[in-house]
Amino acid sequence: MPALSSGPAVAFEQVGKHYGDAAAIDGVSLTIAAGTFVALVGASGSGKSTLLKTVNRLVVPDRGRVLLDARDVADGPAPALRRRIGYVFQDVGLFPHLSVAENIALPLRLAGTPDAAHAMAMLDLVELPRAVATRMPAELSGGQRQRVGVARALVTRPGLLLMDEPFGALDPVTRESLAGAVKRLHDELALTTIMVTHDMAEALLLATRVIVMAAGRVVADEPPAALLAGAGGTAAQALVAVPRAQATRLAALST
Ligand SMILES: Nc1ncnc2c1ncn2[C@@H]1O[C@H](COP(=O)(O)OP(=O)(O)OP(=O)(O)O)[C@@H](O)[C@H]1O
């Protein structure tokens, strides 16, 4: 399928967010070029999800701003912004009383531009058989539900895809297959993609740029090859050490 969209550049300018006295995000500045696949990694509570949600305005920063192609996300109505942004999260949030086809078509209906044929074509894009269109979400496996979530996120042809632990609840084989599908979609649709993950191996394998957060700040920002070569400092290397140690142990088992 030809590229439907071309993702925007994303810029965070001194973005901060406090909850009470605690800084969830503490002055983050980043520029992400159009078409980049970024992984956001870091310990639990380091601010990854909060930072991601400032992009689609699920979180409003108390200082700084977020720009898509130099336009402040705070300008204009949130629904219009969100139509330009696909959002996939761990518990994908399909409506249980709507069929697969109705779930995928919903964002188009809400936008006042229903297009059932396009919604059906999204099933092909995420490699689901069209026969699942009439099923209810409860009649799908977790991996299939997550694919429907990706289809729904992309049905309005957004240029930007935000993913928050999208494969977190899946078994490793399904996880690997869905991650491959998302990477392919990122390339084919020329998306800009920002993915929050706990899994450094996944970040290294999928992303072209890995951003490491700690205590609300960016502490490393490197391509995977540089991280594997030892760049990024202590926090980043502690995360890289985990898959590396696993690979070493597995290699030792086969000798
Ligand atoms: N709505 C909220 N109200 C109060 N505190 C919050 C809220 N959302 C996040 N926080 C706090 O902000 C900090 C950052 O949270 P965030 O969810 O962004 O971290 P994370 O890195 O995504 O964590 P995890 O990997 O566990 O999902 C944490 O200390 C969290 O408790």
UniProtKB/TrEMBL annotation:
Highest taxon, organism lineage: Bacteria
Where do the ABC transporter domain residues begin and end? 10-240
Q: Which PROSITE patterns match?
A: ABC_TRANSPORTER_1, ABC_TRANSPORTER_2
Q: Please give the Pfam families that the UniProt record associates with this protein.
A: ABC_tran
Alphabetical UniProt keywords? ATP-binding, Nucleotide-binding, Transport
Entries under SMART domains matching the protein = AAA
Against SUPFAM superfamilies, the record matches this protein to: P-loop containing nucleoside triphosphate hydrolases
**Alphabetized GO MF terms:** ATP binding
Which PANTHER family does the protein's record reference?
SPERMIDINE/PUTRESCINE IMPORT ATP-BINDING PROTEIN POTA (PTHR42781), SPERMIDINE_PUTRESCINE IMPORT ATP-BINDING PROTEIN POTA (PTHR42781:SF4)
Protein name in UniProt: Osmoprotectant transport system ATP-binding protein
Could you read off the lineage of the organism from its UniProt record? Answer: Bacteria, Pseudomonadati, Pseudomonadota, Alphaproteobacteria, Sphingomonadales
